[in-house]
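Standup notes
- DV: blocked on the single-chain target, sequence here:
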Amino acid sequence: MKRLLILVLLLSNIQLLTGQDFKLIGHWQGVLNFSGREIDIIVSFHKKEGQYQGMLSSQKQQLKDLPMSEIWVTGDSLQFLVPMAGGKWEGAFDNGALKGNWIQGPYKMPLVFQRMEEKPQLAIKERSQTPKPPFPYSEEEVVYHNALDQTKLAATLTIPKGQGPFPAAILLTVAGPNDRNQMHGSPPHKPYQVLADHLSRNGIAVLRADDRGVGGSSGDLFQSNIADFAEDAKAGFNYLKTRKEVDQSKIGFIGNSEGTLVGPLAASQLENVAFIVTLGGIGITGGEVILDQAAGLGPLAGMMEDQIVNTQKRTRQLFSILRQEKDSLKAAGKIRSLVQKNEGTPKSNLFLLPQSPEEQIRLFTSPWYRYQIDYDPAPVLQQLKCPFLALHGDIDPFVLPDKNLEAIAQNLRKGGNEQYAIIKLKSINHVFQDATSGSPLEYNKNETSFSPRALKLILHWLEVVLDY
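- DV (later): unblocked, structure below
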């Protein structure tokens, strides 16, 4: 899920590098143009014990006081990092303004700040499903590390009250930079907090972590790939095995979209994984999924059949370039020519791609994108013998339900797995909201963050399979 800002407020230690004070202290406001939307951004700076500290807010994005973890000041130059937004700003003090760019993953967008006299009062709302304390379970902030590359993973562990040990689920996010709650929209939906709350209220511990480069986690998501994310998931599994509150024989994975590739891959390399739940699960190669998105999203974007066919043709040409040209600079040149040839063709932000051609090229040539187009989950699915629940919304345009559910079922059967269930749910979209069309433009309009029907079904299946 691609969106500009990861919407969460996390208390963290702030480490700051300081330099010349060029009257930075105070409040600054700018407008970021992203995919045709204007997003207000407010940054505030102050000094404490001689060090700069800063926060980022946005009324439109329903963000309030996200802390900056690092601030660099060198002469008139300024950089600051906002981990919970998964991005940074780079620029300089110029004629009374802060002029520079917001950088997040493959996106690099102009963002100019003007000084404001005082910070406005922000009206921050919450969705009706967002859990509110006090909670009937404990909630603990934890950190663990990927054993191969030492990536730090920051997470929340919720543990039911009462006498354990308890079964445990590890939540794995959709594609793109996501925080542990898989937040999106404004006011923010927090589907993974909703899911964790539901499970932990009913006797299941839940571990949910920030993606690489988001929140408290280190690393660079777009310089990583599905195999790296599987190692992160394995690190979470091994961490839970150190917790006395967790039943070590009843730990499993729940993933959405890309997370449905990560969980099975991790499980295939571990012993004693108790279960896997896929939400909008992928059963075919990444390249096929992307090609099918033209068919799924095209009609929602008003594209005619010939336009959909042409989009798929250009996508195949893109894949051919990436497969043949391993040098990213050379590949970028060829993709640039392909993009230029197709200038003037219809575009839609439903596909959740960067609007700038150069940002698209950076995305396409990233290790993350290159790896996923040829990743085939079939061999992994055939290795799995643990209980497996595949849930899919019938109006998912990103991962087409019938094709992928059938592929998942075929591969599980081929591997001899007899403990699986395949269920297609009516009127549920890709991120498991109750919906009408499945369009991502509906996500923010929908009041539900996670379908209550799906919550009940997941819990019931886990109760039967885990017998706890």
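- Follow-up: The chain has eleven helices and 17 strands.
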